[in-house]
């Protein structure tokens, strides 16, 4: 006992416990890694599924995923705490230094992300506009295709504009009525032996890929005629810019033709 105390006073016992401290450090890292894997593979997907079933905006879902991740990391820290008590002052210093650098990098690197995320959450809570609304920002007309945790996606005449949510919170904008959208009607035919449901689903999938088509109101696909030779379909969509209506129609027809060819379906 006296020998042990003398060794501790000389710091020799501490050097003999370094392998044990390394093992404890690996356990701590494993706990945090396991917690993150559980979050990514199970909890994040569960939140996405619940959000989709509830019709919640993707930005709101992303915001809550950040909150849940923070809670999980706190729980992981509480579970790892018992293994931290056996570390020497040197190990504490190294861990503190690493954590300090990581926190500093996160603060400096994600400051704008955090501000935009909070702004996006505010936009979806107070709803000055929503998906599908026609808005005028900085004198440019466009429609809101999506509101994410960091930016708002606005489709304009010159393309898709990704506006940081924090910028939208600072600027004034005009929400236009849905009547300002331009209506397009497209007809096409396929051979009668082709499955109608498959054709309808392919058309809807193609419409989702076209950025200049409004998602609100929802694009519509109708079966207008079925006979021994062909099946007729009518597609009703709305675009933001009337001047690009013919361009959108041309682009959509090309995409539908390509999708049909990939599926082995020929137009009549």
Question: SSE order in H/E notation?
Answer: HHHHHEEEEHEEHEEH
The rough form would be described as elongated
- What portion of residues is helical? 55-70%
Report the average pLDDT across residues: 75
Number of helices: 8
Would you count the extended β strands for me?
Answer: 8
Parts with pLDDT < 50 across at least 5 consecutive residues: 1-16
Category by helix and strand content: alpha+beta
Highest-level CATH class of the largest domain:
Alpha Beta
Biggest β-sheet: strands ordered side by side in the sheet: 4-3-2-1-5
Number of domains: 3
Quote the beta fraction.
15-25%
Name given to the CATH architecture of the largest domain: 2-Layer Sandwich
Could you name the CATH topology of the largest domain? Alpha-Beta Plaits
Radius of gyration using CA atoms only: 29 Å
> Cα distance, first to last residue?
96 Å
The major pleated sheet works out as: 5 strands, antiparallel
């Amino acid at each position: 006992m006296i020998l042990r105390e003398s060794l501790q006073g000389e710091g020799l016992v501490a050097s003999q416990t370094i392998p044990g401290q390394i093992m404890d450090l690996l356990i701590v890292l494993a706990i945090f890694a396991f917690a993150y894997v559980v979050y990514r593979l199970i909890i994040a997907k569960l939140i996405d599924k619940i959000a989709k079933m509830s019709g919640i905006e993707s930005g709101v879902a992303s915001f809550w995923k950040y909150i849940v991740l923070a809670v999980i990391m706190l729980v992981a820290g509480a579970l790892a705490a018992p293994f931290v008590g056996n570390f020497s002052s040197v190990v504490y210093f190294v861990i503190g230094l690493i954590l300090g650098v990581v926190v500093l990098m996160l603060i400096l690197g994600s400051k704008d992300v955090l501000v935009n995320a909070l702004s996006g959450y505010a936009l979806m809570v107070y709803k000055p506009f929503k998906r599908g609304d026609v808005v005028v920002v900085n004198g440019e007309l466009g429609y809101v295709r999506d509101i994410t945790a960091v930016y708002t996606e606005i489709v304009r005449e010159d393309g898709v504009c990704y506006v940081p949510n924090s910028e939208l919170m600072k600027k004034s904008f005009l929400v236009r009525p849905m009547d300002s959208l331009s209506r397009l009607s497209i007809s096409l035919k396929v051979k009668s032996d082709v499955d109608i449901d498959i054709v309808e689903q392919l058309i809807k999938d193609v419409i989702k890929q076209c950025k200049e088509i409004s998602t609100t109101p929802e694009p519509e696909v109708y079966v207008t005629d079925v006979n021994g030779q062909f099946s007729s379909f009518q597609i009703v969509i709305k675009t933001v810019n009337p001047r690009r209506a013919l361009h959108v129609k041309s682009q959509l027809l090309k995409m539908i033709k390509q999708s049909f060819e990939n599926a082995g379906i020929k137009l009549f």
